[in-house]
């Protein structure tokens, strides 16, 4: 059963989950950003939003995707999206910019600027991150 914060109305998998408590509109995160970034985000959202148990929240800097724990963070930057996901092993190869060990998993970052950057491998990485928190 999910819990909804009465102040910010974000939905969480666990009651009283610690979080940044503020109401932030998704549109505000893309104000002044290139239209192409909105299209890239929409494609990612369309892929991930319907996966079982996915909760989506916004903070002042990013969009957070949870399934008991955060498995994907999308941070709109001036001209690109920073995509953060997790894995059980390091991914030092392109297109991953960095892969940093955190406990028993790795935090990985990819930057996207256009629809052509959305490759099947990216969706595979995101799916694996999602499954880590099953």
Give an overview in words:
The protein is an alpha+beta fold. The chain has a single domain (24-132), classed as Yope Regulator, Chain: A (2-Layer Sandwich). The protein has helices spanning 26-29, 35-48, 120-132; strands spanning 3-4, 11-12, 55-58, 63-67, 69-76, 81-87, 98-102, 105-112. Strands 3-4-5-6-8-7 form a 6-stranded antiparallel sheet, with helices on one face. The two termini are 15 Å apart. The mean pLDDT is 89.
Q: What is the strand and helix layout of this fold?
A:
Elements: E1 3-4, E2 11-12, H1 26-29, H2 35-48, E3 55-58, E4 63-67, E5 69-76, E6 81-87, E7 98-102, E8 105-112, H3 120-132
Antiparallel strand pairs: 1-2, 3-4, 4-5, 5-6, 6-8, 7-8
CATH topology: Yope Regulator, Chain: A
Total domains: 1
How much beta, percentage-wise? Answer: 25-35%
How would you characterize the largest beta sheet? 6 strands, antiparallel
Would you identify the regions where 5 or more consecutive residues have pLDDT less than 50?
none
Helix-and-strand structural type: alpha+beta
Strand tally, please? 8
The average pLDDT value, as a whole number, equals: 89
Percent range of helical residues = 10-25%
End-to-end distance: 15 Å
Q: Please give the count of helices.
A: 3
Sketch the topology as an H/E string, one letter per element.
EEHHEEEEEEH
Radius of gyration: 15 Å
Shape field: globular
What can be said about this structure in brief?
The chain has three helices and eight strands, in the order ββααββββββα.
List keywords for this structure.
single chain, 134 residues, alpha+beta, Yope Regulator, Chain: A, six-stranded antiparallel β-sheet, two-stranded antiparallel ribbon
